[in-house]
C-alpha cells in the first residue's frame, strides 16, 4: 500500500504546481494509470484532452466559460425548438408550417430527421454498459429546465415517446384500420424503465450530450459506437469524488468528448475508411506491425483469412471500450490519453493482445480463433498486455 | 491432424435495421437464452452452432452484423461468402419493415445469386405494440419468393425453426446431399451439381 500512497503523492505534487509539467504527468499516467481518488483521473483526462490548460489559475475561468456555453447549446438546440413544438401542438388549425409541408425550409422536415437520429441514439444509450447499474440510476444533477413535468419544453424523453406514438398512428391509418385512437404511452417497463418525471437517469444525460454533439456536427451526425466513447468519460466525471466536478459532469463530458472525437472521428466516417487516418489504414498499420514483430502469427491470420475487419475494427473504433470491463477500460484510456503520439499506443496494445494469445491462435481452427479475438478479455492479463505494449512501443 | 467433427459447414448472415433483435435471435439459437441487455453490435460478431440435419452434422457459422448504414462497407463484404441470409425486421417498428426492400437490394448487389434467404418478423410476442400485420410480412415474402416466419427471441417462438429451415434449404441444394437415403449412390455427385 505504501507504493500506492507514494504514487498518489507523485500525482498530487504534479497537480499542485502552478503550471502543470505535462511531460511528467503524461509519463506517470502512461505507465501506472490514474488514481480515481482526489479527482486525479478526471483532472488528468481534462488536461490530456486539451479541455483545460496547463496554467492552473486559468482553470476556473475556462471551466466557467465552457459550462455557460453548454447551457447556451441546451437553450438553443433543445429548449427553444422544444417550446416551439409544444406551442404548435396547441395551436391547431392555423399553422403556417405543418408536418406535411413539402417546403425544404419547413422546420418539420428537420424535426423528422432529428427524431430519426434521436431514436437511434435512444436505442443505443438505453443499452449502454448493461452489466453496470450506474447508467440506469438517477443523476444527482438533472437538467432542471427540462425535467420539470409542467415545463413548456418538449424534452428528449417526451420526443422519443412522441415519435414512437406518431409512427404508430401513421401505421394504423395507412392500413385503413379504424381503431380507437387511444393515446397509449409507450411503456418501457419490459426492458429498461424510465424514471418518473422530475428524475433523469445517467443514460438520458448521455443521450442529450450525443444529441447536441450530432446537431453541432451535422457532417458527422450520430454514429453507433459514439455512446461507447462517451460512456467512460461521463462515468469518470459523474462519479468524481469532488461535488463540483460531479455537478458539471454533463458539460465537461460534452467538451472532453468533443475534443476526443476531433482526434478519432475519422474512424466513424465511412467515406474516410481508406484515407490516411481512417479505420482501414489503422487496421493495416496493426497488421504491418504484427508482421514485423511476429511473422508466424501474422502468417497464421493470413492463412486463416482472419481479417482485422472481424475484430480490430471494433477494437480500434471504440478504443477497446467494448472488449473489457469498465474499470479496465478506464485504465487503458489513462495510457491512451497520456500517449503523446496520440493513439499510436492503441495499435501497440492491439498488437500486444494478439501476441499474448499467439499460442492459441497458432493452434486453433478459424472458428475458435474468431471467438477468441471477439472475446479476448477472458484470455488475457491486462497488466501484462499493457506492459508488453509499452515494451513494443519503446523499441 | 484434428478429427473432423462435422460433415458440412454452412455460413449464415444476419442483417436488418439496428435494434430489431438480430443479436438476441442468435443468442437464443446458440445459447437457448434471452438477454435484453445486449450492447449494440459494432462491425460484426460471430457464433458457431452444430446441428444435425438429414443425418449430417452441420456446423453453422453465423455472422451477426451492425444495422447502421456506417457499417455497411465492412458488413457487405460478408454477403459474398454467405450461403444463407436471415433478413430481420421488428414487427413493432414499421420503419424497420419499410427498409426490407433496401436490404433485399443489398443482397442482390452483394451476395451470391443462389444464396438462400429468409425474412423474419421478430418480437412477435409484443402483439399489443404491433405495427406490421403478419399479412404484410407474408405479402412481401411471397412477392420475392422468400420463406417467412414471425419470431420471438424473448418467448422462444420459431427461432430454432427459422435457422433449421434455412439450413435445410441450403442442404437441399448441396451437391451429394443425403436427401433420400435409397438413391444416394456415389456417382450422383456430379449430376446433382449440374442440376442447379
UniProtKB/TrEMBL annotation, chain A:
Localization per Swiss-Prot or TrEMBL: Cytoplasm; Membrane
GO cellular component terms attached to this protein's record: cytoplasm; membrane
GO biological process: intracellular protein transport
InterPro entries: Rab-GAP-TBC_dom, Rab-GAP_TBC_sf
Gene Ontology terms for molecular function: GTPase activator activity
Record-annotated Rab-GAP TBC domain positions: 35-340
Principal place of residence: cytoplasm
Membrane in keyword set: yes
Top-rank lineage group of the source organism: Eukaryota
Gene3D superfamilies hit by this protein: putative rabgap domain of human tbc1 domain family member 14 like domains, Ypt/Rab-GAP domain of gyp1p, domain 1, Ypt/Rab-GAP domain of gyp1p, domain 3
Listed SUPFAM superfamilies: Ypt/Rab-GAP domain of gyp1p
Pfam families hit by this protein: RabGAP-TBC (PF00566)
Record keywords: Cytoplasm, GTPase activation, Membrane
Known function: Acts as a GTPase-activating protein for RAB35. Together with RAB35 may be involved in regulation of insulin-induced glucose transporter SLC2A4/GLUT4 translocation to the plasma membrane in adipocytes.
PANTHER family registered for this protein in UniProt: TBC1 DOMAIN FAMILY MEMBER 13, TBC1 DOMAIN FAMILY MEMBER GTPASE-ACTIVATING PROTEIN
Quaternary structure annotation from Swiss-Prot or TrEMBL: Interacts with RAB1A and RAB10; in a GTP-dependent manner.
Protein name (Swiss-Prot/TrEMBL): TBC1 domain family member 13
Species this chain originates from: Biomphalaria pfeifferi
Automatic annotation (TrEMBL), chain B:
Topology of this chain in the membrane: Lipid-anchor
Subcellular location: Endomembrane system
A GO cellular component entry from the record: cytoplasm
Chief location category: membrane
Keyword check for Nucleotide-binding: yes
Gene Ontology molecular functions: GTP binding; GTPase activity
Keywords, sorted A to Z: GTP-binding, Lipoprotein, Membrane, Nucleotide-binding, Prenylation
SMART domains linked: ARF, RAB, RAN, RAS, RHO
Protein family (similarity comment): Belongs to the small GTPase superfamily. Rab family.
Name assigned to this protein: Ras-related protein Rab-10
Natural source organism: Biomphalaria pfeifferi
Amino acid at each position: 500500500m505504501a507504493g500506492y500512497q507514494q504514487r498518489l503523492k507523485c500525482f498530487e505534487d504534479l497537480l499542485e504546481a502552478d503550471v502543470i509539467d505535462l511531460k511528467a504527468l503524461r509519463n506517470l499516467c502512461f505507465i501506472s494509470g490514474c488514481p480515481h481518488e482526489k479527482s486525479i483521473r478526471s483532472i488528468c483526462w481534462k488536461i490530456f484532452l486539451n479541455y483545460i490548460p496547463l496554467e492552473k489559475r486559468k482553470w476556473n475561468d475556462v471551466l466557467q466559460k465552457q459550462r455557460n456555453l453548454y447551457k447556451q447549446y441546451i437553450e438553443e438546440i433543445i429548449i427553444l425548438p422544444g417550446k416551439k413544438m409544444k406551442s404548435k401542438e396547441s395551436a391547431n388549425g392555423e399553422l403556417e408550417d405543418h408536418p406535411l409541408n413539402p417546403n425544404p425550409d419547413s422546420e418539420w422536415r428537420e424535426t423528422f430527421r432529428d427524431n430519426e437520429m434521436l431514436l437511434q441514439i435512444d436505442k443505443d444509450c438505453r443499452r449502454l454498459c448493461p452489466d453496470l447499474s450506474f447508467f440506469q440510476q438517477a443523476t444527482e444533477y438533472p437538467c432542471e429546465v427540462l425535467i420539470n413535468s409542467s415545463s413548456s419544453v418538449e424534452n428528449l424523453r417526451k420526443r422519443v415517446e412522441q415519435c414512437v406514438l406518431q409512427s404508430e398512428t401513421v401505421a394504423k391509418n395507412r392500413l385503413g384500420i379504424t381503431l380507437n385512437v387511444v393515446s397509449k404511452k409507450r411503456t418501457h417497463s419490459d426492458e429498461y424503465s424510465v424514471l418518473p418525471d422530475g428524475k433523469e437517469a445517467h443514460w438520458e444525460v448521455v443521450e442529450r450530450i450525443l444529441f447536441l454533439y450530432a446537431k453541432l456536427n451535422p457532417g458527422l451526425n450520430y454514429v453507433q459506437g459514439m455512446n461507447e466513447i462517451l460512456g467512460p468519460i461521463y462515468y469518470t466525471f459523474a462519479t468524481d469524488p469532488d461535488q463540483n466536478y460531479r455537478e458539471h459532469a454533463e458539460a465537461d463530458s460534452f467538451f472532453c468528448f468533443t475534443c476526443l472525437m476531433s482526434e478519432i472521428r475519422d474512424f466513424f466516417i465511412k467515406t474516410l475508411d481508406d484515407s490516411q487516418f481512417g479505420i482501414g489504414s489503422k487496421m493495416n498499420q496493426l497488421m504491418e506491425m504484427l508482421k514485423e514483430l511476429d511473422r508466424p502469427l501474422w502468417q497464421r491470420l493470413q492463412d486463416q483469412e482472419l481479417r482485422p475487419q472481424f475484430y480490430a475494427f471494433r477494437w480500434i473504433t471504440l478504443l477497446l471500450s467494448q472488449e473489457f470491463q469498465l474499470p479496465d477500460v478506464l485504465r487503458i484510456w489513462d495510457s491512451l490519453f497520456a500517449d503523446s503520439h496520440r493513439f499510436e499506443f492503441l495499435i501497440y496494445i492491439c498488437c500486444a493482445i494478439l501476441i499474448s494469445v499467439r499460442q492459441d491462435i497458432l493452434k486453433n481452427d478459424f472458428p475458435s480463433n474468431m471467438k477468441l479475438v471477439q472475446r479476448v478479455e477472458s484470455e488475457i492479463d491486462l497488466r501484462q498486455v499493457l506492459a508488453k505494449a509499452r515494451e513494443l512501443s519503446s523499441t | 491432424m484434428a478429427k473432423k467433427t462435422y460433415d458440412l459447414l454452412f455460413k449464415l448472415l444476419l442483417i436488418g435495421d439496428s435494434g430489431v433483435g438480430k443479436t438476441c435471435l442468435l443468442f437464443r439459437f446458440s445459447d437457448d437464452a434471452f438477454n435484453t441487455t445486449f450492447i449494440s453490435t459494432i462491425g460484426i460478431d460471430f457464433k458457431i452452432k452444430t446441428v444435425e440435419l438429414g443425418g449430417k452434422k452441420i456446423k453453422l457459422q453465423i455472422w451477426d452484423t451492425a444495422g447502421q448504414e456506417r457499417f455497411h462497407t465492412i458488413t457487405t463484404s460478408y454477403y459474398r461468402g454467405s450461403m444463407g441470409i436471415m433478413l430481420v425486421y421488428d414487427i413493432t417498428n414499421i420503419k424497420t419493415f419499410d427498409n426490407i426492400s433496401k436490404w433485399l437490394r443489398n443482397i442482390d448487389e452483394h451476395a451470391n445469386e443462389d444464396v438462400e434467404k429468409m425474412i423474419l418478423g421478430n418480437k412477435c410476442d409484443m402483439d399489443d405494440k404491433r405495427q406490421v400485420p403478419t399479412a404484410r410480412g407474408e405479402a412481401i415474402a411471397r412477392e420475392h419468393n422468400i420463406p417467412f416466419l414471425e419470431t420471438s427471441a424473448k418467448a422462444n417462438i420459431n427461432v430454432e425453426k427459422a435457422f433449421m429451415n434455412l439450413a435445410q434449404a441450403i442442404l437441399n441444394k448441396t451437391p451429394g446431399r443425403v436427401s433420400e437415403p435409397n438413391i444416394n449412390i456415389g456417382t450422383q455427385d456430379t449430376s446433382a451439381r449440374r442440376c442447379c
